[in-house]
Amino acid sequence: MVLLVERLLEDDLRLIYSLSVSGYQFQTVVIDYDGFLMDYMISPYSYFIYGEEEPEENPLYFNRIAVPEYWDIQGTGSGGEIYDFDDLRGRIFFAEPKKSAMSGR
Known about the structure:
Elements: E1 2-5, H1 10-21, E2 27-30, E3 41-42, H2 44-50, E4 71-75, E5 79-84, E6 87-93
Parallel strand pairs: 1-2, 2-3
Antiparallel strand pairs: 4-5, 5-6
């Protein structure tokens, strides 16, 4: 069985918990991928982000992102920016990690 949810909201987490406690075997697919999913969930977008490789256990800090030689990463306090000399090549958006769905709320 496949459980397809648009956003991972509290009601969705309750349904996932209820189904798993009831003994159902299913794969949860989350459409609105925000970068933080539990290990047993997948997203269609994660394939394009990670490819066939597994994502790293811990998220990278903005200054640990691999960039070409002579490019620079600058923190702005609320995010980051990647520069190729004076040309802005990318933006980094910080995100708050969410609590585990099965841990306390």
